[in-house]
Design brief:
The structure is a single chain. This protein is of the alpha+beta class. It has 4 helices and 6 strands, in the order E-E-H-E-H-E-H-H-E-E. The protein has a 4-stranded mixed sheet with strand order 1-2-3-4, with helices on both faces. The chain has a two-stranded antiparallel sheet with strand order 5-6.
Length: 170
C-alpha cells in the first residue's frame, strides 16, 4: 500500500445493503490529476474535477457508488461543493483540498444527508488497508480491483497503489 495514505469504506444507505461510500486521505498535501471523460454530458463530480485539476495540495477523495450525480444540473454541482466542504470539516481540512467522484444511477440527486451522517464513521475507520474503499466503489462488479507497484525514479523509490471499478470508470 502507498505510504502516507489511509482508506475506508462503508454502507451509508445510498445502496440498499452494500458498501457505497469510500474515503481516501493523504497525510500530506499531494498532487492530483485525472483522465476525465470527453462526453458532453458530464456528471457533477467530473465538472468539478475538470475545473480544479491538475492541482497540488489535495488531501482527500470522497467516492460514492449507487448514484452517479449525473444529469442533476446546478444542484448536483452544488451537492459536490457541499460534500467536499463537509468532508473537509470532518477531517479538519480545507474543503478545497477534497475531491469527489460518484458512480451509479443517473438522473437522481445524491442523498447528501446520508453521506454527511456517515462521515464520522468513515473517518473513524481510516486505515492503511485499501480493500474496504475498493469494495465501496463497486457497482455491478463482482470483485474488487487493486494494484500496487514499487517504482524507482532516479535514485528514489515510491509506491503506486490504485483501485478501480468497471472498465476504469473510477
Amino acid at each position: 500500500i502507498a505510504r502516507g495514505f489511509t482508506f475506508s469504506g462503508l454502507h451509508s444507505g445510498i445502496k440498499p445493503f452494500k458498501k457505497d461510500l469510500a474515503l481516501i486521505v493523504s497525510e500530506r498535501p499531494c498532487s492530483a490529476a485525472a483522465a476525465l471523460t470527453v462526453n458532453a454530458a458530464k456528471a457533477a463530480p467530473i465538472v468539478d474535477c475538470e475545473r480544479r485539476l491538475p492541482a497540488s495540495g489535495v488531501r482527500a477523495v470522497l467516492i460514492n457508488s449507487g448514484n452517479a450525480n449525473a444529469l442533476t444540473g446546478p444542484e448536483g454541482l452544488a451537492d459536490v461543493t457541499e460534500l467536499c466542504a463537509a468532508t473537509g470539516r470532518a477531517l479538519e481540512l480545507d474543503g478545497a483540498t477534497v475531491l469527489m467522484a460518484s458512480t451509479g444511477v443517473i438522473g437522481q440527486r445524491l442523498p447528501k444527508q446520508k453521506i454527511v451522517d456517515a462521515l464520522p464513521r468513515l473517518k473513524g475507520q481510516l486505515k492503511a488497508a485499501v480493500e474496504m474503499a475498493a469494495e465501496a466503489i463497486l457497482t455491478t462488479d463482482t470483485h474488487i480491483k487493486v494494484a500496487s507497484r514499487t517504482v524507482r525514479l532516479a535514485r528514489k523509490e515510491g509506491r503506486l497503489t490504485a483501485i478501480c471499478k468497471g472498465a476504469g470508470m473510477i
